[in-house]
Amino acid sequence: MTDTTTSRIHNDEALESTLEELMKVERFEVPEGFRDQANITDPDVYAEANADPEAYWARRARELHWHTPFTTVLDESNPPFYKWFQDGELNVSYNCLDRHVEAGNGARVAYHWLGEEGEERAITYADLHRDVQLLANGLKDQGVQRGDVVGIFLPMIPQVAVAMLACARIGAPHNVVFGGFSPESVAERMEVSEARALITVDGARRKGKVAGIKSEVDRVMGHLASLKTIVVVNHAGVDCAMQEGRDVWYEDLLSSSAPDCPAEALPAEHPLYILYSSGSTAKPKGIQHTTGGYLTGVAATHRDVFDLKPESDVFWCSADVGWVTGHSYIVYGPLANGCTSVMYEGAPDYPHKGIWWEIIQRYGVTKFYTAPTAIRACMKWGVEYPNKYDLSSLRLLGTVGEPINPKAWLWYHAVVGGERCPIVDTWWQTETGHIMISPLAGLVATKPGSATRALPGISAALVDQDGNEITEGTGILVLTRPWPGMLRTLYGDDDRYVSTYFERFGPKTYVVGDAARRDSDGYFWIIGRTDDVINVSGHRLSTAEVESAIVAHEKVAEAAVVPEPDELTGQAIVAFVTLNGTLQGDDVVAEEIRTHVSVRIGKLARPKSIIWADDLPKTRSGKIMRRLLRDMAEGRELGDVTTLRDPDVVEDLRQKTQARKKS
Ligand code: WT7
After folding, report:
1. Assuming Cys at both sites, which of 17, 191, 265, 279 could form a disulfide with 89, CB separation 3.0 to 4.6 Å?
2. Smallest CA separation from ligand 1 atom 2, residue
3. What is the CB neighbour count within 10 angstroms for residue 1?
4. Residue 598 and residue 576: Cα distance in Å, rounded?
5. Most informative mutation of 517, 526, 542 for ligand 1 (most atoms within 8 A of CB)
6. Which residues of the chain fall below pLDDT 50?
7. Closest by alpha carbon to 91, among 64, 61, 62, 124?
């Protein structure tokens, strides 16, 4: 195969010596060749934006098309319920489609889609524009109205973008659920959001196998009273029962709809979507995003952070559309900016472990955005896979989802980026809607493992327990000014919105839930979550949610779930489980419990290890002391155990945890 990459790494030995050499570099300056062509190179952007953030964001918002221009920028009269561009009207799908078609760019490819079995489709902006209007009309024919919630449970196929944009076009907030979640959790999310319709698929393909999806949807949510319509994409050729009067094929809906569906002018604060994410209780939070502020934030950050050149870039974000990363950087950011993206249906190791690099070569990907966990998996598979392909089209690399360990950063830099591509380590959350802390690649020197500094117009800080700012050292990460893409509330639960994010330091300080360190250059180094959230492969899971799934198993009396460090997934789930009565734990029961969690939540929530506990460490008032279990799993010295009801319990579990580590 070709060997046109600039990488000097041809085998494991060369890799080791290069990494060793790079390990000594503390700071990677902006590569000259990159700076010369970068969109943003003037260091004053920060000072200018931060001198008047409202003016800055108003300017960025005006890069969009407004049906009715806004006259007010930020309404902060009732914190933390902020409103942006309140009297303006716009439509997200108009901005993502019509605008580009009207400018004569209809023939530009929006997505190079590649299916698992190698099928290829190039979907242009004109194609999307046509299908989105047809589906939007189809949904209206089915009785879906502005304000109705529409669930979307689809694999990585172009129809998922069509579905999201069709909802946006008519002002029906969508509620996308990641394809890896179990039908049970989809049902729960449909029920709590009172979804009026659901757009799903006959079956999903995964690594050569096909799983029926519509049949599962029928099994678990057929009874939901709110659900009046189920639209089914015919994708995997799976037979499915269609209920008269409720179910309709996507293809039939498109072929029977009227072609023109003008985009509705929606108030800037109209909800664009809800996306459920795990919190510190068993009940997922419905994070609610808006039309004007969200689109302003994703379009601006996509353009700036990825140094976008919409006419020539081929952008690839390898996330699933079901996560916020996919919402913001597969669908809304790239389409608002009129650029060409890649969408891949399959897994990184199917049909072979070099597929990602093959895709980069095939489509000439220029900007690649992925997660540290994926980089670590590729590292494990070895340099032979990336080395088989020509990766010289790449100009910038990005990461998101969890802290990246320096070794993975350097591997990404050397092997994938050929030591010439800047890496943007982007910190943000489902709640923030868009990237908040990240280098601007033409301007900011990088340090492996640091997300560097807050973007222009964004204010991040570290504070101590009392809320005093820490300029250097470790503290609690907070955001000290509202930003346009911020969540507006938790769906149907304003109180939880306030108590989760704004209770601790008042309604003007958003508490992120992460701890971080700031170095002498003011760079942020994210340490990890400070709440009961576990980050497995960059996916957020709630300990309470996993625990409640485990205790729902008939043999289980009690369970406590904590994270432990994992080389591949960043963190992994360890479950301490007490069985009922005299039942004894063994591999069979452990597998039963794992399957049970998989059915309740999804495969991603299955505990990696299960430790059988005769009892769990509890305070005298009966509260489980997770802190101690966490210390054990992470191999730390145990703190004070004297407040425990039964200190012997701890010793027993400590021995079991250690014995497991050795084996
Ligand atoms: C949490 C948010 C944003 C999309 C993916 C995850 C962690 C996110 C980074 C990063 C270190 C990161 C944080 C954050 N996180 N990006 N670049 N470096 N940690 O979205 O599920 O809402 O999770 O992911 O802990 O709070 P999410």
Report:
1. 265
2. 429
3. 9
4. 17
5. 526
6. 1-4
7. 64
**Cβ-count burial of 442 within 10 angstroms (0-12 exposed, 13-18 middle, 19+ buried)?**
buried
Those residues whose C-beta lies under 8 Å from the C-beta of residue 650, and which sit 6 or more positions away, are 617, 628, 638, 641, 644
The sheet carrying 524-529 orders its strands as: 469-470, 460-463, 473-479, 510-518, 524-529
The candidate with the shortest Cα–Cα distance to 302, out of 270, 277, 273, 331, is 331
Q: Which of 429, 455, 479 to mutate for ligand 1's pocket (most ligand atoms within 8 Å of CB)? A: 429
Chain-centre distance for alpha carbon 381? 24
Q: What Å distances lie between residue 352 and 315, 344, 399, CA to CA?
A: 22, 14, 22
For the chain, how far is it from start to end, CA to CA, in angstroms?
42
Q: What are phi and psi of 545, to 5 degrees?
A: -65, -45
- Nearest Cα neighbor of 441 from 433, 427, 452, 428 is 452
The predicted structure's pLDDT at residue 6: 58
Question: 530 CB contacts (<8 Å, ≥6 apart)?
Answer: 476, 513, 514, 515
Closest Cα to atom 23 of ligand 1? 429
- Please list, in sequence order, all residues whose beta carbon lies within 8 angstroms of the beta carbon of residue 232, skipping any fewer than 6 positions away: 200, 201, 202, 214, 240, 242, 247, 248, 249, 250
Å from CA of 379 to ligand 1 middle: 21
Whole-number Å distance, alpha carbon 277 to ligand 1 midpoint, is 12
Q: Are 510 and 319 in contact (CB under 8 A)?
A: no
CA distance linking residue 532 with residue 545, whole number of Å:
10
Q: Which residue(s) pair with 90 in the sheet?
A: 266
Q: What's the gap in Å between 454 CA and the centre of ligand 1?
A: 14
Question: How would you class 320 by CB atoms within 10 Å of its CB: exposed for 0-12, middle for 13-18, buried for 19 or more?
Answer: middle
pLDDT, the chain, mean? 95
Helices within 105-198 (DSSP H only)? 125-141, 158-170, 183-192
Beta bridge partner(s), residue 109 = 124
CA proximity to 371, closest of 418, 346, 341, 403: 403
Pocket of ligand 1 (CB under 6 A): 277, 324-325, 400-403, 425-430, 451, 512-514, 526, 528-529, 535, 538, 540
Residue 642 structure tokens? 């004297």
Rounded CA-CA distance 201/23 in Å is 47
For helices 183-192 and 587-600, the axis angle rounded to 10 degrees is 40
What is residue 3's predicted lDDT score, i.e. its pLDDT?
Answer: 43
Q: What is the 3-state secondary structure (H, E, C) of 23-89?
A: HCCCCECCCHHHHCCCCCCCCHHHHHHHHCHHHHHHHHHCCCCCCECCCCCEECCCCCCCEECCCCE
pLDDT attached to residue 198: 98
DSSP conformation class of 627: H
**Distance from the CA of 512 to the center of ligand 1, in angstroms?**
10
What pLDDT, on the 0 to 100 scale, is given for residue 47?
98
Radius of gyration of the chain (CA): 25
Q: How does DSSP classify residue 608?
A: S
CA of 624 to the centre of ligand 1 (A): 27
pLDDT value at residue 662: 63
Whole-number Å distance, alpha carbon 108 to ligand 1 midpoint, is 32
DSSP SS3 for 220: helix
How does DSSP classify residue 413? I
Phi/psi at 405 (5° precision): -75, 145
What the chain holds in terms of domains, given with CATH numbers, is 127-283 (3.40.50.980), 532-662 (3.30.300.30)
Supply 271's token pair. 């909800």
- Helices 158-170 and 125-141, interaxial angle, to 10°? 60
Element (H, E) at 255: helix 250-255
